């Protein structure tokens, strides 16, 4: 049989001793190469310069841990009837997961929504959790916005945060120079971001795949650097402060006469404004979601997905692919603009530091982890990522390491993201989900 | 000769396409007539797909003029138009030699995307669609009906809600043709639609093409490398070899043309007679 010839981890029955030995030797070698240089030698500031500290013992223990860990994995997890499947997770777990999703799928969305609505009023919800909730919802909204570009239209955009920045600065500058209120600036910020999406789109969308990713990445950096260097206009690295806080449709959140608490006969509390911000971002995110779901069932949304599947076929059917890409870019950018102006009003202060590449990467990670094109996947991924970040706050410098490790594990387990099936946009008799392996992922993946 | 009472639907004049040092199409002139099934045949590498790519705007020809005469009298010079405009305005639709369906989308969705332009107009460029205006709902219903009509004709109604990639090969071919028809073409260009089909599927395909010609006011331009496949359904055949047109006429004329036989079998002129005789015999057997 063919599988008998399979070597390494996939070999059926018992693993050959020689195989294991070879595998462990390679592991040890790799370990030595990585940890030998990073752990064994350490520089420390000593009086009059640097001194070198040798830590061979520590390096040895780390390498030993890696080798033993691999041995255990070889003998347990990877010891399966081989050759057929190279995923590292037992098939049973995969199917159980799928079944679980199918069973809970229907009830899941309303429960999450209900929880989101009552969350600020739950007894254990304090200021910290509320702030965390706002942060998560901001990323949910950004994830949903980027999902249009990456998940639906299949265009890999690595500079999404640029539109977030445009939205934030639009509000801050409009408020500063023209004294416009948040409620007027919110749509303007969205429109300006969409406008920038189109400006960027025109030259860029003729590019394909990786080139598109590189140019969007560069665009994100350009916007940030312009913000950083245009000192007179944007305040450069000092940023913009004193951005007006939002009012409750004209009623400010302030102590005393005419304030929100006074108007509704409540005792003044600073938490009112936070709760209001929470609901504001919840509503903004839900609008994003609603519009996206709606668009998916319209010809434009279907065209986005068709574009992800096969651009040449689209053109042969009379679809103007450039304008379809532009609408995807502009729509995604618009939602980032809304989120940006929310960010500005919540923080009261913005600077280019908030709009670095790592933000784009985080939003993209949320979309990819959630399952490209899946709305609820984005929610789960945002909660997991942003919440996870908070949980591991203690771990300080290792936070990114843990985070990266978790990401790698999940992508091995579910390469197409947590929710990877695709729901058809229209059906004749029966709605059947399309399984992930058939759905194309678009360019640059 | 082709029936000259018919009016031309597509005229190709002095079309040349050069890739670097390779002249893939060399001074090709031909006409496809309204209501005809025109076949473009030739051995592999003769330049047939390249001609299609020029017609449908995927390549810009090095030289030549391609004119589409629409049924309402409008004329379009295809060599100057963008690919998507050729489908949208000049009403020329095509399929691909390697099937290009939207595999992750359902069969019905594939047919809906083909009706993107009218639906887009009905949805008032999406704005009206978001608010669910009545005229859009009506247009969408009509689009679904049109899709259902074609699904019936390709016997795929039962599979309307399955992913296109899930279909067997023969059904994918038919779906691609139905999808092209949903764009409302006046000329349908098919690139080797019979490739990879079994005889039963091939038969069904022929019926489908004859149906299209009869019912839809659509001319067909058909590429095929195996000439036996096209003989029974084509009204008019153009033979291409190394980018040059070597024959043009009805099936019988082409079949007996010594140059065609030589091109297909790669034989010298002296041997042609013998081969010709052989082909006559096999053709006679094939006829009912
Ligand atoms: N994009 C291209 N670039 C370079 N050469 C091409 C290209 N497309 C086709 N050709 C060449 O043109 C010739 C005709 O190809 P094609 O039209 O695909 O033939 P057919 O469809 O008749 O089998 C071949 O020699 C092929 O290699
Ligand atoms: Mg070809």
TrEMBL record, chain A:
It comes from Hoeflea poritis. Pfam families: BPD_transp_2. Keywords: Cell membrane, Membrane, Transmembrane, Transmembrane helix. The chain crosses the membrane at residues 59-79, 100-122, 128-148, 155-174, 180-204, 211-231, 275-296, 317-343, 363-386, 398-415. It is a multi-pass membrane protein. The gene is livM. This is High-affinity branched-chain amino acid ABC transporter permease LivM. It is found in: Cell membrane. It comes from the Bacteria. The lineage of its organism: Bacteria, Pseudomonadati, Pseudomonadota, Alphaproteobacteria, Hyphomicrobiales. Its main location: membrane.
TrEMBL record, chain B:
Signal peptide: none annotated. PROSITE patterns: ABC_TRANSPORTER_2. One of its GO terms (molecular function) is ATP binding. Keywords: Amino-acid transport, ATP-binding, Nucleotide-binding, Transport. Transmembrane segments: none annotated. Residues 10-267 form the ABC transporter domain. Belongs to the ABC transporter superfamily. PANTHER family: CONSERVED COMPONENT OF ABC TRANSPORTER FOR NATURAL AMINO ACIDS-RELATED (PTHR45772), HIGH-AFFINITY BRANCHED-CHAIN AMINO ACID TRANSPORT ATP-BINDING PROTEIN LIVG (PTHR45772:SF11). This is ABC transporter ATP-binding protein.
């Amino acid at each position: 049989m063919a599988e008998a010839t399979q070597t390494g981890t996939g070999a059926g029955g018992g693993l050959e001793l020689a195989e294991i030995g070879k595998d462990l030797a390679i592991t040890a070698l790799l370990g030595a190469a990585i940890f030998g240089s990073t752990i064994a030698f350490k520089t420390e500031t000593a009086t009059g310069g640097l001194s070198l500290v040798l830590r061979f013992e520590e390096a040895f223990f780390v390498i030993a841990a890696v080798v033993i860990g691999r041995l255990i994995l070889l003998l347990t997890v990877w010891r399966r009837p081989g050759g057929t499947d190279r995923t590292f997770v037992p098939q049973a777990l995969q199917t159980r997961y799928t079944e679980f999703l199918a069973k809970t799928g229907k009830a899941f969305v309303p429960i999450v929504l209900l929880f989101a609505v009552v969350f600020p009023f739950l007894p254990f919800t304090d200021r910290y959790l509320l702030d965390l909730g706002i942060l998560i919802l901001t990323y949910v909204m950004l994830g949903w916005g980027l999902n249009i570009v990456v998940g639906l239209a299949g265009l890999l955009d690595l500079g999404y945060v640029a539109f977030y920045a445009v939205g934030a600065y639009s509000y801050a500058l409009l408020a500063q120079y023209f004294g416009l209120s948040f409620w007027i600036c919110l749509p303007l910020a969205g429109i300006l971001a969409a406008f920038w999406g189109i400006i960027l789109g025109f030259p860029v969308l003729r590019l394909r795949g990786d080139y598109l990713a590189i140019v969007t990445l560069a665009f994100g950096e350009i916007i940030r650097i312009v913000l950083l260097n245009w000192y007179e206009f944007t305040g450069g690295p000092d940023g913009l402060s004193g951005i007006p806080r939002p009012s409750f449709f004209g009623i400010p959140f302030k102590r005393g006469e005419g304030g929100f608490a006074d108007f509704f006969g409540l005792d003044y509390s600073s938490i009112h404004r936070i709760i209001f911000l929470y609901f504001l971002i919840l509503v903004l995110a839900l609008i994003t979601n609603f519009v996206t779901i709606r668009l998916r069932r319209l010809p434009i949304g279907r065209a986005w997905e068709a574009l992800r599947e096969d651009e040449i076929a689209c053109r042969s059917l009379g679809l103007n692919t450039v304008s379809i890409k532009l609408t995807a870019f502009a729509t995604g950018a618009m939602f980032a603009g809304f989120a940006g102006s929310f960010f500005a009003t919540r923080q009261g202060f913005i600077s280019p530091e908030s709009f670095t590449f790592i933000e784009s990467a985080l939003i993209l990670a949320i979309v990819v982890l959630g399952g490209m094109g899946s709305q609820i996947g984005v929610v789960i991924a945002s909660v997991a990522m942003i919440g996870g970040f908070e949980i591991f706050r203690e771990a300080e410098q290792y936070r990114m390491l843990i985070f990266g490790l978790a990401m790698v594990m999940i992508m091995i387990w579910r390469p197409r993201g947590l929710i990877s099936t695709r729901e058809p946009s229209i059906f004749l008799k029966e709605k059947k989900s399309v399984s992930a392996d058939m759905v194309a992922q678009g360019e640059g993946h | 000769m082709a029936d000259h009472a018919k009016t031309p639907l597509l005229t190709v004049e002095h079309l040349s396409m050069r890739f670097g040092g390779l002249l893939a199409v060399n001074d090709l002139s031909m006409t496809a007539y309204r209501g005809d099934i025109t076949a473009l045949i030739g051995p592999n590498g003769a330049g047939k797909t390249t001609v299609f790519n020029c017609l449908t705007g995927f390549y810009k020809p090095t030289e030549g003029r391609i004119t589409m005469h629409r049924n309402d009298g409008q004329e379009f010079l295809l060599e100057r138009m963008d690919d998507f405009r050729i489908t949208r305005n000049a009403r020329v639709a095509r399929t691909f030699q390697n099937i290009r369906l939207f595999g992750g989308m359902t069969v019905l969705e594939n047919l809906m995307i083909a009706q993107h332009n009218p639906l887009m107009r009905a949805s008032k460029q999406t704005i009206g669609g978001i608010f669910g205006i009545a005229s859009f709902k009506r247009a969408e219903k009509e689009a679904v009906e049109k899709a259902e009509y074609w699904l019936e004709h390709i016997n795929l109604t039962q599979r309307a809600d399955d992913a296109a990639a899930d279909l067997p090969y023969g059904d994918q071919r038919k779906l691609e043709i139905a999808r092209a028809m949903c764009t409302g073409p006046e000329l349908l260009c098919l690139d080797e639609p019979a490739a990879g089909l079994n005889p039963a599927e091939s038969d069904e395909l022929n019926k489908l093409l004859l149906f299209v010609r009869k019912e839809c006011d659509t001319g067909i331009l058909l590429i095929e490398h195996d000439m036996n496949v096209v003989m029974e359904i084509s009204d008019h055949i153009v033979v291409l070899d190394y980018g040059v047109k070597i024959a043009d006429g009805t099936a019988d004329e082409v079949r007996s043309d010594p140059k065609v036989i030589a091109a297909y079998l790669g034989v010298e002129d002296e041997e042609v007679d013998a081969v010709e005789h052989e082909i006559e015999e096999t053709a006679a057997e094939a006829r009912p």
